[in-house]
Each structure stands twice: as C-alpha cells, then as structure tokens.
Design goal:
Helices cover 29% and strands 20% of the residues. The chain is of the alpha/beta class. The chain has two domains: 235 residues, Rossmann fold (3-Layer(aba) Sandwich); 125 residues, Rossmann fold.
Length: 392
C-alpha cells in the first residue's frame, strides 16, 4: 500500500470513516475502484517524531493461565516495546490473576517498561466485569494511545467491554498493525475474501486485538539491550472489596472451573509445519503429510479449501480466516498461494513449496520452490527422511 497521508485520503473520498465508537473500517480503493492490497506485515512509521496525534504510551493485556504468562503476552510485549521505542513512549503491561506478582519480572524482561498487577484469589479465573474494571483503572492511570490484546477467547471478550468503558475505538482480530498518520490495522473481512484496512484518525484511544503470531517476542539480543527497570516499575492496582467484586460480576459468582483437555497440536507453536492444499487430492494425501510431519518433528497444517472439503480439522487452518503462524520451516504442498493463505504464513523462517503449476503464486514468497506433482515427490521425501534417521 502506498504511503498516503490520511488527509489526502479523506479528501480523495477513497476512505470512508465511521465514528470511532463503532468497529470502524476504512476501505482503500484504487483509481479503478479495486481495493488496494492490504499491508500484511507489521510496519511502524514515525510521523513528525510522534505517532500522529495519539498518546505515546502503549498498554497491553498480559494473559496468564494458572499464574503463568502465555506466549501471546510475550508477543504483545515485544511488539509494544518496538513501537513505544519509536514513539518515545512506554510499553506498559496489565497483569491480573492469582499468585501472578512474580510473573511481572518476566514481562519486564520481555519488554514492558512498567507493569500494573492485580493479584487476588478473586482473579483466579477470568471475569469480564472484574478484569474490565481493573484494566480500565490501569488505562486511566496512563491514558495510552494504543491498547493491545490477543485475539484469544479472553481478549476477544475483554476488548469490547473495555472499549465501552473508555469510549475507545476497537479493531478486532487483526492480522496487521502499522502507523500512517494515525493507527492503521488490517484484518480479514467477514466473507473471508478480502482484507479490510481500518483506521481511527481522530486521535482517540484505539483498542486492537491481534491474532497470535502477528507480533513477535523480543529477540535475545533485544532483551539483553533493555535498560534496567525503574524501582517502581511494578505497581499494584487497587482491588475491590468482595461485595463490590460480586457486583462487578453482575451478581454471578463462579463456584468451580474445570480445565478441559489441553491440545498438544497447536500449529502456532510448531517449529515445523507441513501444510497441504487442494493439490493434495483428499484425506489420503494428508496421511502422507502426517508421516512427513512426524519425521520432521512438526505438525500438519492446511489451507481453507481443505477444511471446506472435510479433509482436515479447522484447528489446522492457516490464513486469513485461520491462524497466523511463524514456524522455522513451512513446507507447502499443493498450495497455490492465494493471499488468503499467504497472509497467515509469509512470516515463516524458511518456506519450501511444491506445486505442479510453475506459475503458482506460492513461489513468489518461497525460499525454495519445486515444480512437480506432490504424489511423486513426497514419497521420495519420506524415503530420504527415513534413510537419514536410520543413519543417525
């Protein structure tokens, strides 16, 4: 997307602004009326040394489970720190839960300049009312220009409640975030065909939920270069009395919470993904991919077409309407490379693609491309991997 100032965009009438209280979206269109390709990579830009008219501080929600920081929180910490470093602001975490105070040090090492903690047995399990009231307290303490949450079950529930409390703009389930005379966000449209570009150009606080994998944690080098945290970097928020806490939960008290079976095949955490598309031909093709994934110590992923055909589980889907992944190796088999899929995997470390069509778009973003039939190539790959393991 070309760099265009918001003012000129508005004057050109190619951006349609909806009031910030709603889930606003701006549709950018070219001269021919076609939508411009959205910016799918994280990109930050300085405007006159500041992030447009927004406040420089960034607040992010540090999600935990059983008192342990989740991966998405480290991703938000890294992204917030990088943006705050450019704006001259601070990256500030909000960490609620039970027995979580010690986890604040992890967030400081992950990029947070300060951490607001709320540690109480009342916060052992998520509650929209309680968590929302305490995060509102944190936000009003710092008046951030940007608030980040993960697009998790908790983040997607908490974000709209917080937006109402703060009278803030909200962009949900985003796959991109950058600054261009104000905050701009990209996310899939409801029909899953296009990416929408959203903006909140009036300088109000913007709340953004981001899919896991869109932002990245600080590298080891970045973490080592962080300055020592201030003596008062960790601050405890004022907790409500039990009676007030019950009122905040609309009079509903949680008696018991039973943890379900934890999935061990989360593709967003895999270092190696073996992904299949329509070119795999059917469920039998995915059995072959499973063998390769097992040999490589990875997981199986797929494109949307395979979900619609019933060849794979929805938890395996990568792309605009699936998950965003950043494995060290992404092996794409029989995937054409439509942008609806590549928007979810183009940040992978090494992309190897196999497709019988030499003009397949997937080759445009691949580090290594192999033109050929997967039914012929994959059995040879399995044989080579098995031989290698035998030698070891």
């Amino acid at each position: 997307m070309a760099d265009i100032l918001a003012l000129s965009l508005l004057k050109s009438q190619n951006v349609h602004k909806i009031p910030h209280r709603m889930d606003i979206r701006c549709f950018l269109s070219g001269a021919d009326g076609q939508e411009d390709a959205p910016c799918e990579l994280l990109h930050f830009k300085l405007i006159g040394g500041l992030l447009s008219t927004m406040q420089n501080d960034i607040l992010f929600f540090a999600e935990q489970r059983n008192g342990r920081i989740q991966k998405i929180s480290l991703e938000l910490a890294g992204g917030a720190k990088r943006l705050a470093a450019q704006s001259g602001g601070r990256s500030i975490a909000f960490l609620p839960g039970r027995d979580v105070s010690a986890e604040a040090q992890i967030l400081l090492k992950a990029g947070a300049d300060a951490v607001f903690t709320a540690d109480s047995p009342l916060l052992a399990f998520y509650s929209t009312g309680l968590y929302g009231a305490l995060m509102e307290q944190a936000a009003r303490n710092v008046n951030p220009g940007l608030i980040l949450l993960g697009s998790t079950t908790i983040g997607m529930d908490l974000a709209p409640a917080l937006a109402v409390k703060l009278d803030a703009g909200l962009a949900a389930d985003c796959t991109g975030l950058w600054v261009e005379d104000g905050v701009r966000m990209a996310r899939p449209s409801l029909d899953g065909i296009t990416n929408d570009t959203l903006c909140c150009p009036d300088g109000n606080t913007v709340i953004v939920t981001l899919r896991p994998g869109v932002l990245t944690p600080l590298t080891k080098e970045e973490a080592l270069s962080l300055p020592a945290p201030a003596a008062d970097a960790v601050q405890e928020l004022k907790l409500p009395e039990p009676e007030e806490a019950l009122r905040m939960q609309n009079g509903v008290e949680l008696l018991k919470a039973e943890l379900g079976v934890k999935r061990t095949d989360d593709i967003t955490a895999a270092r190696v993904l073996v992904a299949g598309g329509r070119g795999m031909g059917g469920p039998a093709g995915f059995e072959t991919l499973g063998r390769i994934a097992a040999l490589l110590g990875g997981s199986v992923a797929c494109s949307r077409a395979c979900i619609e055909s019933g060849w794979a589980d929805t938890s395996c889907q990568v792309g605009q309407t699936g998950k965003t992944v950043r494995p060290a190796l992404y092996l794409a088999c029989g995937i054409s490379g439509a942008f609806q899929h590549t928007t979810g995997m183009e940040g992978s470390g090494l992309i190897i693609s196999i497709n019988k069509n030499p003009a397949a778009p997937i080759f445009d973003i691949s580090d290594l491309g192999i033109v050929g039939n997967v039914e012929v190539i994959l059995p040879h790959l399995i044989q080579a991997l098995e031989s290698y393991q035998t030698i070891e």
